[in-house]
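hey can u check if this looks right to u? its 728 residues, i copy pasted from the old doc so theres a chance i mangled smth
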Amino acid sequence: MNHPVTAHNQESVRVLLPLALPLTLDYLPDGMDLSPGQFVRVPLSARSRIGVVWGAGSPDVPREKLKSVEAIIDVPPLSAQHMQFVDWVAAYTLSLPGAVLRMSMNVPDAFLPPPMRTLYVRGGPDPENMTSERAALLERLVDQHPRSVRELALLGQVGEGVVRGLVKTGTLIPVECNRDEPYPAPDGGGRGPTLSAQQHDASKALIDALKEKRFAPFLLEGVTGAGKTEVYFEAIAEMLKDPDAQALVLVPEIALTSQWLDRFEARFGAAPVEWHSDLGKAERRRAWRAVADGSARVVVAARSGLFLPFAHLGLVVVDEEHDPSFKQEEGVIYNARDMAVVRAKMASAPVVLASATPSYETYVNATTGKYGHLTLLERHGGAALPQIDAVDMRDEQLDAGTFISAPLAHAIEETISRGEQVLLFLNRRGYAPLTLCRHCGERIECPNCSAWLVEHRYRNELECHHCGHHIPKPKACPECGEEGTLVPCGPGVERLEEEVANRFPSARRMVMTSDTVTGPMVAAGFVRQIQSGAVDIIVGTQIVTKGYHFPKLTLVGVVDADLGLKGADLRAGERTYQQLAQVAGRAGREDRPGHVILQTYMPDHGVTKALVGGDLDKFRSLELDLREKSGMPPFGRMAAIIATGEDERAVMNAARQLAASAPRYTGVFVYGPAPAPLSRLKGRFRYRLLLATKDDVALQKIVKEWLAAQKRHKDVILRVDIDPQNFN
């Protein structure tokens, strides 16, 4: 708990540093009036560090052993809610609070004095030598808005020399201004589109919660194209009526939101503040400070935006809440969807979890009354859901090196002939997932990971998609030395595009993957080409499932509908359905009917039958029934413990010792240890243990006590993943 620090009890203060330290550190205030949340500079060893005042210091630490706070940093303090959030996330994920705080302080330039520039305003007497050009400029200069020399020259339609002359005469006087200009404020007063009855009812529920300023979690579930975005836009418009409130919209991949950004600006008259890894240092500083001082009214962000220092958070939205990319797998391991609900609760704000294919955790929370459940059952504007058919690939006779069945090829030809667009979906980057020597059988693997190198023919490289290791494609087999014997096995999108070029040579085509869509500007360019009709066939991976709206896109072909069903992942069926339903939802979103063709070797699988039959409820009910009977999430809780190290034997021994001391409680089960499916990653071997409990068991307490009793292994690291989402 944070204890207030006042002028009367400032014997010492606790400071939390954004470092992997187990405790806060005590410092003397040295006459400064310090309060919790303030950013301060303090000495640590031989360096100065910036941290946050976390409360009153311990009276048990002698003053003579303490160093003094060096300075208060001139930035808005962290709110009490944000400090509470840092402590909560640390406790929930079993992470060090400093490691969590570091995610809120990962903009070093934000803590430096703001960059300044010299601008000019009219402030002195008119010049004695009043030329016509000077008069023209001064006549147009009717306000006291500071401007640069160039801006003044453009305003007066004069040369910059005229402006500099007025500076010399003292007519224009210099003012020092912050180089980071304020963001334009969105206007919530504009009228949005006419809502359907279901959209109106859903938006009213959100608006009522906003007016009451209460925590209220909602699942906004609607079929693809139902207009979920317009519903929560209504909530944002309501939130903007409060001059202090801020909204956070989390999206899976910010690089793919160009259409969303255009819609937002058209509705609210200004773009939202963006937060993602592609921002430059200057823009990150500007955004961080604007969030902290409250001037950033609406922020659209990737998962890391959850840890921005909001001054007055009034609304949280998690769009495509089912998306697995909301799970952070490095450093502090957390699920941004779940943490967003916690953050909203601390802010007494509504939180909207929007999806056409909600995660089972969110769905169960909604159907059991823990969350509000808002549903949109029809596509907006009267568009119909696409027809979905399956092609049994066991009956197809494909030539070697081809992957498009005859029914799909025929549908592609018909679609293009009508002037409509086709999307071919294959969730596999590169040209081929495996390169094999047909002479000796060698499979080219990554030296750092237990994974094959993927051929990328556009770059003429083999690359590991786990660690990034890459090499030029060899001319000879590295094992037997034979030349011309290396052959690609299986298709990636590059190989599929090659087949498209051969079979449909007149079709204009485009490949959309994370290799080609490298940022928001590139994504916007791809979208413009598709919307303009300059593309006939799009070949893409999962990034094309992220809510795009292409009016002429009427055919979706899923080249390998079984790809996500391989392996023993608990969520394989759930995720495959979500992904395929999302990509199917790109088809026929306006007045042209859509058609989806699934190529499958398992036409009787529950996922395929649910998609073809349009019966999500039956499929979901069967899956949830199995999960409930086995006590698996969302009806039970899990934690994964991963032992990693460069010495496989040491890792294995550490994992076995951990298993030998596993907690023995009723309703607590420990599985493993076993090598992880990806048993070597970035040069480190990996063994996993899985702890499963009933939903009402204090999972973190059990794991914390279990790990605290372990002997430390010098070369082995134990990582904890509460609520694991994948089992690689």
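The CA atoms of residues 275 and 305 lie 6 Å apart.
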